[in-house]
Amino acid sequence: MVQHSGREGALSVVAAMQKGAVIDLDDRLALEAAELSIDTRLSLTDSVMLATARSRGAELWTQGSDFEGLEDVRYFMNHWSA
Questions:
Q1: Element (H, E) at 78
Q2: Disulfide engineering: 47 pairs with which of 10, 37, 43, 78, CB 3.0-4.6 Å?
Q3: Dihedral sign from CA coordinates of 48, 22, 1, 61
Q4: What are phi and psi of 34, to 5 degrees?
Q5: What is the DSSP letter of 79?
Q6: Is residue 6 part of a domain?
Q7: Domain residues for 47?
Q8: Please, which pLDDT band fits residue 82 given cuts at 50, 70 and 90?
Q9: How would you class 33 by CB atoms within 10 Å of its CB: exposed for 0-12, middle for 13-18, buried for 19 or more?
Q10: Tally of domains within the chain
Q11: pLDDT one-digit tens code per residue, 23-74
Q12: Band of residue 76 on the pLDDT scale cut at 50, 70, 90
């Protein structure tokens, strides 16, 4: 990262990451994720991310097309990778 965006860019990313929180995957959240995986056909990993966002009252921002059209998800395409 430092090579591509310079030291100031890297420090900016680290500062943004420090504002985040680590959420434990407890039994309740794991069960919600499993149900989401079944209902939405998302992978369990994606379901854990969505269940975690929903448990915190947050919107999940993603470029993952598997999430397109789901509630509480802000799906956007990366126009630079095409």
A1: none
A2: 37
A3: positive
A4: -65, -40
A5: T
A6: no
A7: 24-82
A8: very low
A9: buried
A10: 1
A11: 999 999 999 999 999 999 999 999 999 999 999 999 999 999 899 889 999 9
A12: confident
Q: Tell me which H or E stretch contains 5.
A: helix 2-18
Whether residue 80 is predicted with pLDDT greater than 70 in this model: the reply is no
In the chain, the amino acid numbered 13 is V
Give pLDDT, residue 16: 87
Task: Confirm whether 17 is domain-assigned.
Answer: no
Contacts of 54 (CB under 8 A, 6+ apart): 32, 72
Q: Is residue 1 included in any domain, yes or no?
A: no
- DSSP E strand stretches across the chain: 60-62, 73-75
Distances (CA, A) of 28 to 6, 33, 55, 67: 41, 9, 10, 22
Q: How far apart are CA 21 and CA 30, in angstroms?
A: 18
* Encoded tokens for 61: 């921002």
pTM to 2 decimals?
0.72
